[in-house]
Structures are given as C-alpha cells and as structure tokens.
Amino acid sequence: DTMKILVATEKPFAKKAVDGIRGIVENAGYELALLEKYTDKSQLLEAVADVDALIIRSDKVTAEVIAAAKNLKIVVRAGAGYDNVDLEAASARGIVVMNTPGQNSNAVAELALAMMIYMSRNRFTPGTGTEIQGKTLGIHAYGNVGKLVGRKGKALGMNVVAYDPFITDEAVFAADGVKKVASVEELYKVSDFLSLHIPATEQTKGSIGYDLLMSMPKGATLVNTARKEVIDEAGVVRALTEREDLKYITDIAAGNQAELDEKFCKRVFATAKKMGAETAEANINAGLAAASQIVDFLKNGNTRFQVNK
Ligand code: 3PG
Questions:
Q1: Ligand 1 and 81: CB distance under 6 A
Q2: What ipTM was predicted for this assembly?
Q3: pLDDT single digits (tens) 199-250
C-alpha cells in the first residue's frame, strides 16, 4: 500500500510549489492528492478519509477533521502559526503535528515594512505623507519574522527596539543593532510603528488593545501581520475614536473591519485576504519543506519541528 499525502489548501500554493511538492512526494514512492480552493469543510472531511499525511496552510484541522482521517499519521502546517490545528485531538491519536518555521518569514517581514510605508504615504492617495526613516520601530516578539523586520527596519534608517519575553540572551538583539526594552508597556510607549509578531495563544488572545494603543506616541501606527485573535477589537475602536492621530493596518481583516473602515477611513486598512505569506518564494520554501519533513518522518521517524511533543 502506497502512502498518500494530501495537500489541502483553501488558499492554494503557487503552481511551482505544488510541482516541487509532487516531485518530493513521488520521488519517495508516495502518492500526492490535491484539494485546492475548497469552499466547504465537507470537501476536506471527504478528502482526508484515506490519507496518511496532510500538508495545510491556514486550513482548519479540527477534531472533526482528525476523526475523519482514519489513517492520518502527520500534519504539517506549511508556515509558522499552528493555531489552526487542534493539537489535543491530534496528540490523542498519536498524530505528529509540525510547522515549517522561518520558511515564509521573509515574505511576511517585507509586507510589514510595506504596510508602514503605505500608511505613511496616505495609503498611496494624494497628500503630504511622512517618512519611516528616523522613526522608532517597535517589534513585539523577536522570532523569525520579528528579527527580519528588525534588520530591514535598521537598513531603512529606523531606530529599532524590541520586546520578547522568551529571549533572555541580550546578544540576540545586540547582534542586529536592536535595543531590547524591558516590558511590553515600554515598547508601545516609544514606538512610532509597532509591528506585531506574537502567536495566537491562550495568553496572547485579546491582549493588544486600548491601554497599549493609547500609550503610543503621536501619529503612531499599529501593524498587524500576526493574528487577528491577539487584538482586543473593541479596545482598538475606542483608542482610534479617542486619538485621531492613531492608525491601524492589518493583514487579517478584523471581525469588526466594516465598522473600522466606516469610522476611521484612511487611518485603517485591511488586506482583502491574508497575504503575508503570498509570494512564490514563501510558497516554495514552506511547501517543499513540509513535503520533505513528511518524507523524513515517514521514512526515518524524524520529528524535528514537531510542535505537539
Ligand atoms: C503563517 O503562520 O505561516 C502565516 O500566517 C501564513 O499563513 P498562510 O499560509 O495561510 O498564508
């Protein structure tokens, strides 16, 4: 019986990435199945029924999906954030869950900087804007994406500060010429641009809101290329209402985006569909890494990058 690997992507990879994944899978003697642009979870439930391995993006792998996948041994989220996978349900069945850290980070970092310039230049509409050079860029969480945003920000002449409760080694920041601040409060207080790179966890959900925004300098912009769940949406509305100088740009439309757009017009912007990792390069890097990790797990039992150990 040949192992079957399913790529299930509501938002598909670039063709080159799919071709590369197919090459890796078939070269290993396995079979590739594709479910792209599906519109209903019933299609996913049907497609996973006989697969041994699953490659996904932001696709929701719920307990129901896991229950429907009787032969499933491994799920690889081609990307960084795995908040879309029910880890408990997977672990209960002994299913290995992995991500592909760093593989799509550059695409997200480039988008974060682009968003800062876009807001600084009146969303590319007529009028006098401002420059990002010389401004203070605060980075909330200095992981794979945060680091790249920091380095690029430095190259663009920004003064870069960062906060990450999980990095105790000061040298990590110093190596990039980035100043580490001691608290999340201090970070927001000094940041003309605040770029969010925290994952959505029980601790972070709804943690960015009114108080932090209100503490930011005059004319500050909050940039969200992380997850919408980390935002306290009502708090953002309140802060933008009280402070007409604040701006908010997000790669993931807020639950209340229509309200934001109507109330704050040019001070807010959301992409139509999450596009941080939407580059050919990121698709290829993350997609091929996912396929290789699956082959290495099925053939050699390699569990590096497992997130539910
Ligand atoms: C990630 O966590 O890697 C990004 O959010 C990318 O998500 P996507 O693959 O759905 O574009």
A1: yes
A2: 0.99
A3: 999 999 999 999 999 999 999 999 999 999 999 999 999 999 999 999 999 9
Which tokens belong to 77?
A: 């989220």
Report residue 226 as tokens. 């992380």
Q: Which domains does the chain have, with CATH numbers?
A: 4-103+278-300 (3.40.50.720), 105-270 (3.40.50.720)
Contacts 24+ apart (CB under 8 A), 178-184: 178/139, 178/142, 178/150, 178/154, 181/138, 184/140, 184/212
Question: Cβ-count burial of 173 within 10 angstroms (0-12 exposed, 13-18 middle, 19+ buried)?
Answer: buried
Which atom of ligand 1 has the smallest separation from the CA of 274? 11
If you measure from the C-alpha of residue 275 to the centroid of ligand 1, how many angstroms do you get, rounded to a whole number?
8
**Of ligand 1's atoms, which has the minimum distance to the CA of residue 99?**
3
Mutate to test the pocket of ligand 1, among 103, 198, 274, 307 (most ligand atoms within 8 A of CB): 274
Q: Is 274 in the pocket of ligand 1 (CB under 6 A)?
A: yes
